[in-house]
C-alpha cells in the first residue's frame, strides 16, 4: 500500500503538499533511519544529495506529520521496504528533473501559441494548460469545472492541448474531434466555444454522425474537412504529453504543479486560488 502510494507520487504529493514537504519529510526520515536503521543511512544520504535539499524546508502540516509517523512505523516493522522506497524516490526525482527541462523547453509553445484553442481572458495572470480529449469521460467532467473557474476568476485562461488518445481516426470521415476543433479555432475563433461545448457534452465517443451533427448545428460544415496544417500541432501535443511523463487525460499544468486526472471543483478551486496568490506575490 505504501509503496504504491510512493510510485503514484504525482497525485500523492499534490494532496500532501509537494516538493518542500517531501524534502522536509526526507530530512526527518533520514534522521529516523540513522538512529533506528544505521545500515541504510548511506543510501538515504545519497538520495538526499540527489534531491539537493535546501537548508530551509516548509514546516509540515499536522496531516503530514501524522503521515510521517505512519511511515516510520511501517519502516520499523518492515525495513525491507526501504530499498523500494529509495528506488521510488529516485525515480520520482529523475522524472521531476526531466519535467522541469521539458517545461522550460516548450514553455513558449504551450503558453504563447495562437494555434492552441483556449477560453477565458486574453490577458491572464494565470494560465492553466489542460491536456484533454473530447472522447475522454473524465475530460468531459473536468471541462465545466474549468469553465466555472474562468468565470469566477476573470484573470484565468485555460489553454486546451488536444491529445486524442482514444480516437485518432473516425470511420467514414477524414478528421477527428481534435482536428475539427482546432480547425474551427483557426478559421472561426468566435464560433469555437459553441463547437467546443457540443463536442464536450456528448456522452461516449464521437463518430461520423455526431461530428456532422455538431457541424450542422454550429454551421461549421466546411471546417469538418481535415487540414494538413493541423497535424504538426497534434503531433507536437503528443510529443510534449509524452515527454512530461503523462499517460492519460485529463492532466493539467497549474503554476508549478502537474495535476494528473480529474479533480472536482472543490479540490481544484483552492489550487487555482493558491497559484493566483503566488503570481500576485511575485509581482509585489
TrEMBL record:
Q: Would the keyword Transit peptide be found if you checked this record's keyword annotation?
A: no
Tell me the organism: Photobacterium profundum 3TCK
Entry keyword Protein transport: no
Domain of life, per lineage: Bacteria
Q: Which InterPro entries match?
A: Thiol:disulfide_interchange, Thioredoxin-like_fold, Thioredoxin-like_sf, Thioredoxin_CS, Thioredoxin_domain
Record's protein name: Hypothetical outer membrane protein
GO molecular function ontology, one term from the record: disulfide oxidoreductase activity
Q: Which residues form the Thioredoxin domain?
A: 51-277
UniProt keywords, alphabetically = Redox-active center
Q: Which Pfam families match?
A: Thioredoxin_2
Amino acid at each position: 500500500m505504501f509503496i504504491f502510494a510512493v510510485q503514484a507520487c504525482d497525485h500523492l504529493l499534490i494532496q500532501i503538499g509537494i516538493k518542500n514537504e517531501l524534502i522536509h519529510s526526507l530530512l526527518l526520515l533520514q534522521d529516523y533511519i540513522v538512529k533506528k536503521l544505521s545500515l541504510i543511512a548511506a543510501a538515504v544520504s545519497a538520495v538526499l544529495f540527489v534531491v539537493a535539499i535546501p537548508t530551509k524546508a516548509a514546516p509540515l502540516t499536522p496531516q503530514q506529520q501524522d503521515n510521517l509517523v505512519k511511515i516510520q512505523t511501517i519502516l520499523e516493522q518492515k525495513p525491507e521496504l526501504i530499498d523500494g522506497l529509495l528506488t521510488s524516490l529516485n525515480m520520482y526525482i529523475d522524472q521531476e528533473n526531466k519535467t522541469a527541462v521539458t517545461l522550460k523547453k516548450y514553455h513558449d509553445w504551450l503558453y504563447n501559441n495562437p494555434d492552441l484553442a483556449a477560453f477565458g481572458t486574453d490577458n491572464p495572470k494565470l494560465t492553466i494548460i489542460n491536456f484533454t480529449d473530447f472522447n475522454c469521460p473524465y475530460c468531459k467532467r473536468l471541462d465545466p469545472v474549468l469553465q466555472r473557474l474562468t468565470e469566477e476568476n476573470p484573470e484565468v485562461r485555460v489553454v486546451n492541448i488536444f491529445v486524442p488518445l482514444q480516437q485518432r481516426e473516425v470511420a467514414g470521415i477524414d478528421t477527428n474531434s481534435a482536428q475539427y476543433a482546432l480547425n474551427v479555432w483557426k478559421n472561426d475563433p468566435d464560433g469555437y466555444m459553441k463547437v467546443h461545448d457540443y463536442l464536450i457534452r456528448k456522452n461516449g465517443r464521437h463518430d461520423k454522425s455526431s461530428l456532422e451533427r455538431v457541424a450542422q448545428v454550429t454551421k461549421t460544415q466546411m471546417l469538418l474537412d481535415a487540414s494538413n496544417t493541423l497535424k504538426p500541432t497534434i503531433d507536437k501535443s503528443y510529443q510534449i504529453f509524452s515527454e512530461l511523463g503523462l499517460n492519460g487525460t485529463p492532466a493539467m499544468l497549474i503554476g508549478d504543479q502537474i495535476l494528473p486526472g480529474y479533480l472536482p471543483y472543490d479540490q481544484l478551486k483552492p489550487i487555482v486560488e493558491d497559484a493566483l496568490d503566488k503570481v500576485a506575490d511575485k509581482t509585489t
